[in-house]
Amino acid sequence: MKNKVALITGAGQGIGKAIAVRLAHDGFAVAVVDYNPQTAHQVAEEITRAGGKACALNADVSKRDQVFAAVEQARELLGGFDVIVNNAGVAPTTLIEDITPEIVDKVYDINVKGVIWGIQAAVKAFRAEGHGGKIINASSQAGHVGNPELAVYSSSKFAVRGLTQTAARDLASSGITVNAYCPGIVKTPMWDKIDREVSAAAGKPAGYGTAEFAKRITLGRLSEPEDVAACVSYLAGPDSDYMTGQALLIDGGMVFN
């Protein structure tokens, strides 16, 4: 991946951080993008200390102009643009009867619109560079099978699969591939929050939600962020050049296709 540049949104912690670290290990120059500038800088510094090349950028992916600005900054600072990983997301638990317009707007602005803006910004950058590229979107096993108490989140991740398929068809002639990765239950701060909310809703102590969901994992353990990063590494590298429009499940066997 010498001289290749990758940008990852939501890379200040959790899965996004693991992806940034893995792609830097693979040889990419990495743009670490997060709405929290402090965590973005920490991850970029960690990569740099390990001998990689990285920059930290601040952006709220729900804001189209900020996504475009981050991609353009990455091009200028790192000297090119080859891969975008639209990873940023939120996952509030929502009983059907408790869904509010505010929850729908927040989740869709980040999980769906953020992906659209990332796709658009990447296409613009690839064309400015005069070559194709790879667009990699964060879906979920909850984007294959509706998950209880996650109606808004699940529906947003189904939408990402649809965007991925359509963009793959629309952009193939430009030499751009578009794929998605679909994690299951990953040990991240986001999952800790889901566990607390699901457990509380059931009147149970923290950890109950995780134990209930984990019963559905064929491999018998929760995912580490590095498991997901390994899948993204494949999608970002040359071995996946003949793949487009796919949404790879990396969930330990929760959903079988």
From TrEMBL:
Name of the featured protein: Diacetyl reductase [(S)-acetoin forming]
Domain of life: Bacteria
Binding site for NAD(+): 13-15, 34, 60-61, 87, 153, 157, 183-188
Reactions catalysed, as given in the entry: (S)-acetoin + NAD(+) = diacetyl + NADH + H(+)
SUPFAM superfamilies found in the cross-reference section: NAD(P)-binding Rossmann-fold domains
Catalytic machinery residues: Y153 (proton acceptor)
Keyword NAD listed: yes
Classification via PANTHER family: 3-OXOACYL-(ACYL-CARRIER-PROTEIN) REDUCTASE, 3-OXOACYL-[ACYL-CARRIER-PROTEIN] REDUCTASE FABG
Keywords: NAD, Oxidoreductase
Organism: Izhakiella australiensis
Record's signal peptide: none
Record has Oxidoreductase as a keyword: yes
Gene3D superfamilies, per database record: NAD(P)-binding Rossmann-like Domain
Family: Belongs to the short-chain dehydrogenases/reductases (SDR) family.
SMART domains xrefs: PKS_KR
Domain Ketoreductase: 4-184
Coiled-coil residue windows: none
Single GO BP term: monocarboxylic acid metabolic process
UniProt cross-references to InterPro entries, sorted A to Z: 23BDH, KR_dom, NAD(P)-bd_dom_sf, Sc_DH/Rdtase_CS, SDR, SDR_fam
Example of a GO MF term: diacetyl reductase ((S)-acetoin forming) (NAD+) activity
EC number: 1.1.1.304
